[in-house]
Amino acid sequence: MRRALLIAAAILVIASSSVTLALQRGPVGAPPDLQPTVILISFDGFRWDYPAKAPTPNLRQLMARGVHAENLIPSFPSKTFPNHYTIATGLYPGHHGIVANNIFDPPTGRTFAMAKREEVQNPMWWGGEPIWTLVERAGRASAPLFWPGSEAAHNGVMPHLWKAYDGNVPASARIDQVLTWLDLPAPQRPVFITLYFEDTDSAGHANGPDSPAVRAAIVRDDGYLGALMNGLTRRGILDRVNIVVVSDHGMAPIDDARVIVADDYLSTNDAYISDINPTLGVFPKPGKEDAVYRSLANANPHLKVYRKAETPERWHYRDHPRVPPIIGVADEGWQVLRRATVDAVKAGTIKGPRGTHGYDPMLMSMRATFIAAGPAFKSGVTVPPFENVSIYNVLAKILDVIPAPNDGDPAVARSLLRN
Known about the structure:
CATH topology of the largest domain: Alkaline Phosphatase, subunit A
Number of strands: 19
Strand content: 15-25%
CATH superfamily of the largest domain: Alkaline Phosphatase, subunit A
Low-confidence stretches: 1-28
Number of helices: 13
CATH architecture of the largest domain: 3-Layer(aba) Sandwich
Radius of gyration: 24 Å
Largest sheet: 7 strands, mixed
């Protein structure tokens, strides 16, 4: 009997030693040389309250083991390109130069639009120093997939791995690409990776934020996160990689009845419209600024109009030469459209959108999402709302790179990170 007990005890010791060694080595397949790594995921137009609108088990799992903000405050204007690039640089749009989705550059006379590939890839537009450039300068690899600004060089530096945006690439292929990059040998393996999904933004514009289509898009986004997490789990690195989920802005419901027609108050002889709906960017022609301002200021009670120097200080939208001399912003739920667009909607040629964004970031409908988990983040913590300019310093701290001068609040990193 005693001999049997001794044998059993010996087996238990051997088994315990094996478990300890396995834990020390990490899960099967986990690379022993994995450096601190961040996967930054953007769910475009994923409003702060969307996790409560549909089943989101993967997002909730991420919240439970990490940190999340009550909501994330976008920068003005609350549009896609300006805010994605703000997250990447820690600068307000009025400081980094991507001041809208459609931009006029007075010194050169060039115009920027999201669909103009030659401009998207032109370094002249992109100020600041994005996080992937910091990583590259530190001698490590970055792989920003489909992130605004990643297709252009910054002071001659390009990401190690990148691809031109292609909305036709399915979500599964995007996730597979990221996992393939993580399978690379250590010298080529990126430590900073991004993912981008447009589902909730597209559904929100077409159908409105409270629609069944948006709820379906929320579920899809959560599934994309789940697929990524499963891939990381299979590689034994789920708990060794930092996952940061963000969105660029929220979404407000709109309809065809609440419309301000820009052509009723502006003539092309007097001004050039650089950006429209629900903001209005206006460059008056020489000698016309006062007349154009007066016309717009009295145009419609649902349109707030500012001279550049009089915009709210919290927008930080006064300094850059690309900020239009006159800026209009519609009230929540209202649109600013050209007459041709209004006529096409009335004729049934096109369908009017049912959701939009771009309004004042203080509106709750414009608030975005921040959820993160991984070895660098605290666990089970909810923090008050913060501005998205502060994410840059958080990423820089995790990746151990020195951030460029930026507009972020250093206290945010302290509230989110373990060290």
